[in-house]
Amino acid sequence: MKAIIAFDDSDAAKEALKFSMKFKDVIDEFIIVYVSPSLIGVTPTFDTYIPASVYQRQEETSDSIIESAKRLAGDTSSNLTFVNVDSKGETVPKAIMRTAKERGADLIITGTRKLSGLSKAILGSVSSEIVKLSTIPVLITPPVER
């Protein structure tokens, strides 16, 4: 069995990754995925210059998030794969679903911040959208009460 773990270094993602490690005896391969958001939209009349330093900072951020996932997972065994996925102009949930299909995942594990009301309307909910789009099982871990 293969599982995709959506990871963005948020507290919710950290909890999802920690929880997923409890299934090491059942899951053959964990694919920890960070989706790099697109810097720009894709339109037919697109004409914008983005300095190379912006791309460099985004790459550094992506590398830092993947390193955080590696530290948190704590195990360098062969059943952990860390992937930085370019969103290619898609939403994060669509990029996660695309990656799950490409990698033949049997399960998606993600955290939730339990957003509601205006926060949810403005920020959106990645976990809710994954559930709507998914054709494979999704496990959502709740945030830790502090």
How would you explain this protein's 3D organization?
The protein contains 5 helices and 5 strands, in the order E-H-E-H-E-H-E-H-H-E. The termini are far apart. The relative contact order is 0.23. Strand 1 (about 1-5), helix 1 (about 10-20) and strand 2 form a beta-alpha-beta unit. The protein is an alpha/beta fold and about 150 residues long. Helix 3 packs across helix 5. The chain has a single domain, classed as Rossmann fold (3-Layer(aba) Sandwich). The longest helix is centred in the middle third of the chain and has 22 residues, at about 50-75. The chain is about 40% helix and about 20% strand. A 5-stranded parallel β-sheet has the order 3-2-1-4-5, with helices on both faces.
Distance between the first and last residues' Cα: 33 Å
**Oligomeric category:** single chain
Structural class: alpha/beta
Mean pLDDT rating: 82
Q: What are the low-pLDDT stretches, counting only 5+ consecutive residues below 50?
A: 118-123
The CATH architecture comes to: 3-Layer(aba) Sandwich
Radius of gyration: 16 Å
Order of helices and strands: EHEHEHEHHE
CATH-assigned homologous superfamily: HUPs
Largest sheet: 5 strands, parallel
Q: Total strand count, please?
A: 5
Tell me the domain tally.
1
Beta-strand share of residues: 15-25%
Level-1 CATH class name: Alpha Beta
The helical percent reads: 40-55%
Task: Give me the number of helical elements.
Answer: 5
CATH topology: Rossmann fold
With strands numbered from the N-terminus, the spatial order across the biggest sheet is 3-2-1-4-5
